[in-house]
Amino acid sequence: MLDGAEASFGDFKGKTVLVVNVASKCGLTPQYGDLEALQRKYQDQAFTVLGVPCNQFKGQEPGSSEQIQEFCSVTYGVTFPLTAKADVNGAARHPLYTALTSFRTDELQDEITWNFEKFLVSGEGEVLARFSPKTAPDSPEVIAAIESALN
């Protein structure tokens, strides 16, 4: 985790998780606010957002763990967990993203296309949905997918 604590995806067993590769210096960075709103709205229903900072897209997440944590909490009031920085593409791709990207859509294939690509994962670890970076976290399709997973 960003705070240095060890964690595995198994720690989220039983929770619906929206996994998002995030960046602090991206045109889509304001999505942090909508992600935090989802966290607050659904956190009492076995749901969490999991942010995965990534610096693979034009160096838009250059900060240290401390800088990222401070930016997220001060600027957007982020309370959801953030992992350590990870690669989401390429030879050093984190194993979580190897598993997540096996879920493809017509638009989204093997590679992560940009910051703020979203994956909805069930409490049993099944990828339920994948959303493009430009799909807002509070869009009707994301909300419907989350609510369907929680019911």
Outline of the structure:
The chain has about 150 residues and is of the alpha+beta class. The chain contains 4 helices and 4 strands.
Could you characterize what this model shows?
Keywords: Oxidoreductase, Peroxidase. It comes from Arthrobacter hankyongi. The protein is α+β, with helices and mostly antiparallel strands. It has one domain: Glutaredoxin (3-Layer(aba) Sandwich), CATH 3.40.30.10. It is 27% helix and 15% strand. It has helices at residues 31-42, 65-76, 95-100, 140-150; strands at 16-22, 47-53, 118-121, 127-131. A four-stranded mixed sheet has the order 2-1-3-4, with helices on one face. The model has no long low-confidence stretch (mean pLDDT 93).
Q: Keywords for this structure?
A:
151 residues; 4 helices; Glutaredoxin; Glutathione peroxidase; Glutathione_peroxidase; alpha+beta
